[in-house]
C-alpha cells in the first residue's frame, strides 16, 4: 500500500470505510474517552514547528504489515503470525489476550476488545458476513471478534481471498482491480493498493518514488506501507 | 497426651482466624470482580495505548520477590553461612508462595484466561513470555523439591506425633519414614545440590523478566540492555527484604527458629546490595540524560520531573536512600530497623517496577499526546486480593505444617540428653505410623 500525502485531503472516508468493511465494533463515548476505541485504520495529525512557521501533517495509519514485525515473535501462542502473502494477522480464537503484541507494536496498530461487542442496530443488520480462515481453520478475517482478544487491519483479506478464488485482478493499476476498502473509498485516489513485489504494479513504482518514506523507518521493522511525502 | 487434648476446650486461635477470614474475603472480592469483568468488560485504567497496568506491575514484582528464598539457600549451601540454615526452608516457602501468585496475576489480567492452556499447546519459543512459562515452572518444581528435602526430617517427626493431621503428613511424605543418619545425610546432600541448581535458574528467571521489556525494539525506556541485570538485582534486594520483613513480623507466630543476629545479618547483606541497585539505575540515567535521544529522554524526564516525579523521588528517597541509611550503620541495624528498612525496600522496588513498566507505555511513537494511566479500584481490589491469597497460603501452610516448632524440638532432643524420659514417645509414634 502507498499513501500519497499530497493527494490526501484528510476527509477520513478511509477510516469509515474500514470500520464498515471489517465489522470494527463501536466503542461509545465513554470507552472512546478512555482510549479504548478500535480503529484498524486510524487518522493522525501532527503539528510541527511553531507559529508562524508551522506545518500540519495528516495521515491515515493502517497496519504497516512490517516485513520484520516486532509484534509477531513476542506472541506466546502463535495467535499473531505473518502469512505467506506477507500479511500480519491475528487468530482471534487462539489469542489469550496478554497484549504483549500491543506493547511491541510501535505504530499502535493493534487494538484490544476490552468489553463485549455492543450491538448497535445498524451494525448488526449490515454486518459483513465474510468469514476468512487460515490453513489451520482459525478465523482471521472480518468475522466478529470475541471479547478479550487483539484485532487489527488484515489488508481486507476477505477481498483478496475472494479475488484469488474468482481469479480477479488485484491492484490499483487495473481499472477494476480488487483493492482494500480504504483504497477503494478514497475520493482523492491517494491510496494505492497492490503487490509491492510485482514490478508491474503501481505500488511498486510509487514505493521507489523519491518522495517515498515509511513510518519509523529507523526501527528496522520494514513497513510494507509507504507514504509519499508532501511535495 | 491425646486424652488431655480431648478434655481441653478447643482454643480458637483468634489472630489466625482473623487473618485467614480477612485474606480469604479479599481474595473472594478479587475473584468476584474478575468474573464480573469477564462478562461485562475489563474495568481497568488500561487502554489500547497503555495495554499493561497494575496487574502486570505486580506480576513482575512477585517474580522478583521469589528471589529471597534462593539467596538464603545460596548463603547456607554455597557460601556456607550456617547461621541461615534454620530460616532457609522458610525463605523457600516464601519464594514458592510468591511464585504461585504469579500465575494468579496472569489469570486476573489475561483477556481470555480460559485459553491460558494455549501457552503450552501452541507456545512460540521466540516469545519471552514462553521463556517465562518454561523457566518459572522449572523453578517452581526445583523450589518445591528443595523445600521438601529440606523439611523431610521434620515432616517424618510430625507424622509420628499423635494428632489429627497425621494423615496429611503421611500423604505429603507418600509413605516415606526413613530418618536414619544415613538418610538424613542424603537429604542434606540433595538440598545442597539443589541450591546449586536453583541459583543459576533464578538468575535466568529474573533476566527473562527483564528481557520481556528489553526486547521490545520500538519502546524507548524498555529497549535497554540494563533491564535484565536491573531486574536480577531488584529481585534479589526485594526478595531478601521480604524474607527479613516476614521473619520480624510473623517469625514468632510461626515459631521460626531464628538465631540471634540473623535478621541483622540480612540487613547487612541488604546494605551491601542496595548500592548495586542504585548503581545500575544511575548508569541507566547517566546514559539517558547525557545523550539527546528523544525517546528515552522523554520517558525519563517525565519520570524524574514530570507527572511521575512524586513516585520517582519517593522511590529514590524512601526505597533506596532511607533504607541504606538505616541499614549501613550498625547502631540502627537492629531487628526493628531492618524490618522498617525492608518494608521500605519492598515498597521502593514496587514503585520502581511501576515506573519502569508503566511510564514507557505512556509515550506514543507516532504523533500524539502523552497518555495517562491510573489504576481503577477494581485493579486495586484484585491486587489486594492476591496479596490476601499470599497471606492465606502463608498462614495455612505454617499452621498445618509447624515445621519451625518441630525443627526446634528435634534439635533440642539431639542436643539434650538422649536418656531423658521422652524417648518413649518417638518409638510409640513409629509403631503407630507403621500401622497406618
Question: What do these coordinates show?
Answer:
The complex is a heterodimer of chains A (231) and B (436). With 231 residues, chain A is an alpha+beta fold. In chain A, 22% of the residues lie in helices and 15% in strands. Chain A has eight helices and ten strands. In chain A, the strands form four sheets. Chain A has a four-stranded mixed sheet. A two-stranded antiparallel ribbon of chain A has the order 2-3. The longest helix of chain A has 10 residues. Chain A is globular and about 45 Å long. The two termini of chain A are 19 Å apart. In chain B, helix 7 crosses helix 8, helix 7 packs across helix 16 and helix 11 packs antiparallel against helix 13. With 436 residues, chain B is mainly alpha-helical. Chain B is globular and about 75 Å long. Chain B has 17 helices and no strands. At the A-B interface, strand 2, helix 4 and strand 6 of A face helix 2, helix 6 and helix 7 of B.
Describe the structure concisely.
The complex is a heterodimer of chains A (231) and B (436). Chain A is α+β, with helices and mostly antiparallel strands and 231 residues long.
Itemize the secondary structure elements and their pairings.
The complex is a heterodimer of chains A (231) and B (436).
Chain A: E1 2-4, H1 13-21, H2 28-33, E2 42-48, E3 55-61, H3 71-74, E4 80-82, E5 88-90, H4 100-104, E6 111-112, H5 121-125, E7 150-151, H6 157-166, H7 181-185, E8 191-192, H8 202-207, E9 212-213, E10 226-228
Parallel strand pairs in A: 1-10
Antiparallel strand pairs in A: 1-8, 2-3, 4-5, 6-7, 9-10
Chain B: H1 2-7, H2 14-40, H3 54-65, H4 67-77, H5 85-109, H6 118-121, H7 128-160, H8 166-173, H9 181-214, H10 227-250, H11 262-290, H12 294-305, H13 309-327, H14 335-358, H15 377-400, H16 403-415, H17 424-435
Structure characteristics:
heterodimer, A: 231 residues, alpha+beta, 4-stranded mixed beta sheet, two-stranded antiparallel sheet, 8 helices, 22% helix, 15% strand, B: globular, disordered C terminus
Amino acid at each position: 500500500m502507498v499513501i500519497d500525502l499530497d493527494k490526501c485531503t484528510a476527509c477520513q472516508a478511509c477510516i469509515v470505510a474500514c470500520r464498515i468493511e471489517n465489522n470494527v465494533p463501536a466503542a461509545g463515548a465513554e470507552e472512546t474517552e478512555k482510549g479504548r476505541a478500535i480503529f484498524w485504520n486510524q487518522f493522525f495529525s501532527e503539528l510541527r514547528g511553531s507559529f508562524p512557521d508551522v506545518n500540519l501533517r495528516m495521515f491515515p495509519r493502517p497496519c504497516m504489515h512490517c516485513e520484520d514485525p516486532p509484534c509477531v515473535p513476542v506472541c506466546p501462542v502463535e495467535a499473531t503470525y505473518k502469512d505467506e502473502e506477507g500479511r500480519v494477522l491475528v487468530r482471534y480464537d487462539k489469542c489469550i489476550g496478554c497484549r504483549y503484541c500491543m506493547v511491541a507494536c510501535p505504530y499502535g496498530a493493534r487494538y484490544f476488545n476490552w468489553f463485549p461487542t455492543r450491538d448497535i442496530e445498524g451494525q448488526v443488520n449490515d454486518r459483513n458476513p465474510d468469514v476468512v480462515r487460515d490453513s489451520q481453520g482459525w478465523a482471521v478475517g472480518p468475522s466478529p471478534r470475541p471479547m478479550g482478544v487483539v484485532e487489527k487491519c488484515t489488508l481486507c483479506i476477505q477481498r483478496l481471498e475472494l479475488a484469488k478464488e474468482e481469479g480477479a485482478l488485484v491492484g490499483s493499476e487495473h481499472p477494476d482491480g480488487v483493492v482494500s476498502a480504504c483504497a477503494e473509498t478514497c475520493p482523492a485516489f491517494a491510496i494505492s493498493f497492490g503487490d509491492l513485489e510485482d514490478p508491474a504494479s503501481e505500488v511498486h513504482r510509487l514505493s521507489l518514488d523519491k518522495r517515498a518514506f515509511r513510518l519509523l523507518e529507523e526501527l528496522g521493522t520494514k513497513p510494507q506501507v509507504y507514504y509519499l511525502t508532501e511535495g | 497426651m491425646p486424652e488431655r487434648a480431648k478434655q481441653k476446650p478447643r482454643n480458637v486461635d483468634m489472630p489466625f482466624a482473623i487473618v485467614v477470614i480477612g485474606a480469604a474475603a479479599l481474595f473472594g472480592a478479587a475473584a468476584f470482580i474478575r468474573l464480573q469483568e469477564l462478562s461485562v468488560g475489563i474495568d481497568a485504567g488500561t487502554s489500547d495505548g497503555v495495554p499493561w497496568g497494575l496487574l502486570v506491575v505486580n506480576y513482575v514484582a512477585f517474580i522478583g520477590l521469589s528471589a529471597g528464598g534462593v539467596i538464603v539457600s545460596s548463603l547456607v549451601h554455597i557460601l556456607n553461612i550456617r547461621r541461615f540454615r534454620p530460616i532457609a526452608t522458610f525463605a523457600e516457602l516464601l519464594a514458592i508462595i510468591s511464585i504461585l501468585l504469579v500465575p494468579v496475576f496472569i489469570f486476573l489480567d489475561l483477556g481470555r484466561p480460559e485459553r491460558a492452556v494455549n501457552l503450552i499447546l501452541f507456545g512460540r519459543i521466540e516469545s519471552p513470555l514462553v521463556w517465562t512459562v518454561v523457566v518459572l515452572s522449572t523453578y517452581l518444581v526445583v523450589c518445591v523439591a528443595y523445600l521438601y528435602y529440606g523439611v523431610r526430617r521434620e515432616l517424618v517427626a510430625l507424622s509420628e506425633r499423635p494428632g489429627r493431621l497425621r494423615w496429611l503428613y503421611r500423604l505429603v511424605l507418600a509413605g516415606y519414614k526413613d530418618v536414619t543418619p544415613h538418610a538424613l545425610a542424603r537429604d542434606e546432600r540433595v538440598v545442597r545440590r539443589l541450591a546449586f541448581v536453583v541459583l543459576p535458574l533464578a538468575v535466568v528467571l529474573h533476566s527473562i523478566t527483564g528481557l520481556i521489556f528489553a526486547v521490545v525494539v520500538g519502546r524507548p525506556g524498555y529497549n535497554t540492555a540494563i533491564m535484565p541485570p536491573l531486574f536480577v538485582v531488584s529481585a534479589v534486594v526485594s526478595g531478601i527484604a521480604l524474607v527479613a520483613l516476614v521473619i520480624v513480623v510473623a517469625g514468632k507466630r510461626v515459631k521460626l527458629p531464628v538465631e540471634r543476629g540473623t535478621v541483622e545479618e540480612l540487613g547487612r547483606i541488604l546494605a551491601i546490595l542496595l548500592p548495586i541497585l542504585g548503581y545500575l539505575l544511575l548508569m541507566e540515567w547517566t546514559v539517558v540524560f547525557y545523550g539527546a535521544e528523544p525517546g528515552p529522554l522523554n520517558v525519563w524526564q517525565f519520570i524524574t520531573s514530570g507527572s511521575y516525579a512524586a513516585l520517582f523521588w519517593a522511590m529514590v528517597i524512601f526505597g533506596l536512600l532511607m533504607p541504606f541509611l538505616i541499614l549501613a550503620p550498625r547502631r540502627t541495624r537492629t531487628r526493628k530497623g531492618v524490618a522498617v528498612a525492608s518494608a521500605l525496600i519492598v515498597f521502593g522496588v514496587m514503585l520502581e517496577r511501576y515506573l519502569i513498566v508503566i511510564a514507557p507505555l505512556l509515550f506514543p511513537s507516532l504523533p500524539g499526546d502523552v497518555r495517562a494511566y491510573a489504576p481503577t479500584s477494581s485493579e486495586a481490589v484484585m491486587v489486594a486480593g492476591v496479596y490476601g491469597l499470599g497471606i492465606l497460603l502463608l498462614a495455612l501452610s505454617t499452621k498445618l505444617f509447624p515445621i519451625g516448632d518441630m525443627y526446634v524440638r528435634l534439635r533440642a532432643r539431639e542436643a539434650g540428653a538422649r536418656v531423658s524420659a521422652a524417648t518413649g514417645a518417638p518409638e510409640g509414634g513409629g509403631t503407630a505410623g507403621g500401622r497406618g
